Amino acid sequence: MKTFDFIIIGGGVIGCTIARSLSRYKLSILLVEKESDIGMVTSSANSALVHAGYDAVAGSLKAKMNVAASPMWDTFAGELNIPFRRCGDFVVAVDEKEVQKLEELLTRGKKNGVPGLKIVTGDELKAKEPLVNPNATAALWAPTGGICDPFAATLAAGENAVMNGVQIALNTTFESFITENGRIIGVHTNRGDFSGRWVVNAAGLQSDAVMHKAGVRPEFKITPRRGEYFIVDREEMKINSVLFPVPSDVSKGILVTATMHENTLIGPNAQNIDDKEDKSITAKGMDEIWNGAKKLVPSVNQRSIIASYAGLRAGGNAPCADSSVDYTGDFVIEIPETVMGLVNLGGIESPGLSAAPAIGQYVVELLKDHGEQLIEKADYQPIRPARPRFRHMSMDERKEMIQRDARYGRVICRCEMVTEGEIVAEIHSPIPATTYDAIKRRTWLGTGRCQGGFDMPLVVEILARELGKSPLEITKKGEGSEYLYRKTKTVEGQPA
Amino acid sequence: MSQLEEIELICVTCPKGCKLDIIREGDTFVKITAGCKRGKEYARQELTDPRRMVATTVKVNNGLHPLVPVYTASAFPKPKIYELLSILRELQLDAPIHINQVVLADALGTGIDVIASRDLPASSAI
Amino acid sequence: MIKQVYDVVVIGSGPGGVAAGIAAKKAGAEDVLILERDVEPGGILLQCIHNGFGMENLGEDLPGPSYAQRYIIEAQGLGIVFLLETMVLDITHQRKIIATNKYAGIIEIQARAIVLGMGCRERTRAQIRLPGSRPAGVYTAGTAQRWVNIEGYMPGNNIVILGSGDIGMIMARRLTFEGAHVERVLEIMPFLSGLSRNYVQCLLDYDIPLQLQHTVKRIIGNDRIEAVETTRVDDRFNPIAGTEEIIPCDTLLLSVGLIPENELSRKAGVAIDPNIGGPYVDDDYQTSVPGIFAAGNVVHVYDLADWVTQAGFRAGENAAFFAIKTRNRELRSIPTTAGKNVRYVIPQQINKDNLAEKDVSLQLRVRQPIEAPSRILVKCGDEVITSKAEMYARPGEMISIDLKPKHYDVINSACAITVDVVERE
Ligand SMILES: Cc1cc2nc3c(=O)[nH]c(=O)nc-3n(C[C@H](O)[C@H](O)[C@H](O)COP(=O)(O)OP(=O)(O)OC[C@H]3O[C@@H](n4cnc5c(N)ncnc54)[C@H](O)[C@@H]3O)c2cc1C
Ligand SMILES: Cc1cc2nc3c(=O)[nH]c(=O)nc-3n(C[C@H](O)[C@H](O)[C@H](O)COP(=O)(O)OP(=O)(O)OC[C@H]3O[C@@H](n4cnc5c(N)ncnc54)[C@H](O)[C@@H]3O)c2cc1C
Ligand code: SF4
Questions:
Q1: pTM for the predicted model, two decimal places
Q2: Residues B43 and B63 in one domain
Q3: CB distance C322 to C291 below 8 Å
């Protein structure tokens, strides 16, 4: 049995940033992820916002982590070379009642310690966001709010962890704990057993099931809350920052936001469902998003939609650790007393992405408090270099790149301008991309207007060649999602 | 005495896709209404010996692509299409292929050749 | 070898582009270059292996590849150069084309006229707002067509087709030929969206059911599609409750329309008609940017490739005329250069022919002041064509000198003129 100091369950943004934070120390670390790639579940299907922190309930762990993480993002994104922009966000009020709500939010934000908040007039708002609803009368402006590429954050943190010695086992599902004398000493997975002094539960939507296996918090329950989105073509509409509606009691509402890929994102709605796998898009949801978006930006046009997707929030039911705060639904980040060897996380819904860098640090602090000797490595490397992106190069850089590697001269995705060279580089990167979706998340190929219609057969061919497989074995997102069934000419046509 | 029979067809000869009205008495065509002469011809043919152009692919060794498109040099008897496909499915050609090259001569004794729709160079030629 | 300047450069080697090339060459364009990103010329027709092409233009019923090859051979015979595996990235207002090629790297080419022939692309799932999960097995009909007809792979065995467009119906027959079972074709409208002949020879002939006023309500299956839920719709396209049906399938093909491909046109500043998605064109098929023409499905979606060819001819011919005019103007123009003690001369170019009829005024500034009687000399090589005396020459004061029709003969044989300003002896 392979032995590690730490086994992390789950390769979402949380598991990967914890892996990175721990990789600074002299520890052997294994991260197990059940899917064919990291970041396939919630960390690649969300609003991609780095929240300023005024929204979370004052005194909650959510608020604490969010506000602590916000200023860390410049360094986090800088070291990992990932797309991040502090574009600021607005909460837009369209009538007097809503203006009052802004005051409440402002007060809450100040209490949480969010810097720079202020209420601006409708005109100030419109000067920055010309497309906003002309009826907007005022807005709360949070200059520290930002946007990022959430999958890039997950990937880069994971890659940096790998650079610093962490091992990642994909297609590996945690099944149960191995315990000895009330202490966790390892895990059973579908691909064998691994022993570890510590196990970290970063299983997102499955975090309740995982902690129950350790007998922790039997009353804790994740209720998946689905949010659906539309993406609007960058040629058709441009938003410069993040536009929130004034939140209702049940939800933050449908927002309209800039993205790091210059398209506009609209969504999400919020619907509690039973199935933790059901990321389908519904006709009702689409209408909801549509109407919500129109409230903020009336000119948004259905014909400019180029894609839709849905994500599942891992909504928990944990009461706030500070019992004076009346709130259930807080983050769980703890080393439980009842069982030894478990770092337990749960209910990491929004603002989990924003909070990730702080959560990584917080876990390190918790471990130190529990007497774990953490010795820094001399050769820890915090910088994860970005790989070249043809789309962002100048003509001279392109010339040079193609001279070095001719595959950068072959454009595979015309909309997003992704070349064969980039695809091949991702297939052979530290966390290899082995499926079409894995390449899509890394390069943004196929995300433009033709949605893969042109590039898909080419990518399948490249994947097959580079992985030494038949195109019949290439999948969209792992086993069971093969693109092709058989060669032609192998089955006879039959009269119906 | 055979009955007068009224039949409606859609012409597939050209993209206009005219509706054809046919009145037939036994084997005799009493009246055919069509958009043009070719349509009348089609109606007669369709009701006596229906035929279609058949286009498919054939495997190629060592070609730029693994398949070459082929088609019947003229319309082919409809009832024999699956039989034709089955024979073509077993064929294996060698690149290079030239356009109009006969891939299968006198298919199923119909006198109709199956020919290549394009040039296909050998993969090494590229 | 690729030159730096061409009379006509065509982008795309589909029937539109190739026809434009042929017509341009025939109309007198000196050199015509066709840029194509694929490994071979022909465009989308290479995967349209069915018959039905050429009836209008050639009087024959040909498959797509045969039809395409006819014109490619003609183009090659005319000496038109095809540069393959070359993706055009950008076009400037000044008709400079920037492209990338695996072997040659980034290529920059100046065109006197350009014909856009990038074709169209298919509408996708997002554009028709198709609810449900997002598994493998949902493809546009054209993607499936490429896999089946060119690469030799089957996307599935049990197929539902959404949309009664021609490509969908043609694929229904094609997949049946290859041993797949096409469950049915669904069409949301109360009428067929493709040609009736394709309904007969692709669906009826093979007993493939067509359901009008039906659509897919939901896609089912997480990894690979497992089924679709279909529904009947009313006249306003709303699902009618109680008409739902779950149809097991392993593939859903979308044949829900084509959109002109105009990313490049936008970059070139060409105005796009939002209604159609293609550029505004005049009767010469010239776009809003002078010298940039467009032909084929890049303008609007034609139902017949033959008509694309005809549009290509017209665009190509007019592109040639534009190029020839531009070339002549270039040939008849010579540069004016700043010589001794001259900082610049305006205009930088003069058209010789203008001088045949009227004066051309040259305006210039000196570099260094000459506080003494000076002379402006306009020269062709060493020969002084004309000169003018000034009391002095100062950088702050513009100087002008006229060329007159009497100078036409000298200038006509010159390849440049120089202006000097010197102290009078
Ligand atoms: C609609 C929506 C919008 C959101 N918007 C924002 C936002 O704008 N800003 C923000 O800060 N946050 C946002 N969030 C929240 C944010 O996305 C999440 O907090 C964050 O992605 C959680 O990361 P994670 O690593 O905990 O979960 P995940 O990304 O779900 O990762 C958990 C991983 O564990 C794996 N796993 C589960 N079980 C097992 C097992 N048994 N064995 C092995 N592996 C297992 C899963 O496969 C998965 O990869 C949003 C969330 C949603 C759904
Ligand atoms: C899947 C599909 C099936 C079709 N089936 C039929 C049919 O059966 N019958 C019919 O009549 N019509 C059919 N059509 C319509 C068909 O497109 C036209 O009839 C005809 O092929 C259009 O010719 P074109 O020259 O405008 O474009 P295309 O044939 O599409 O050619 C455009 C060419 O431009 C190239 N190109 C595009 N962008 C660039 C760039 N940036 N740099 C370099 N090269 C570029 C492309 O690679 C392509 O070769 C079909 C269309 C599609 C999409
Ligand atoms: S009748 Fe003539 S015009 Fe009408 S579809 Fe047939 S061939 Fe075409």
A1: 0.91
A2: no
A3: yes
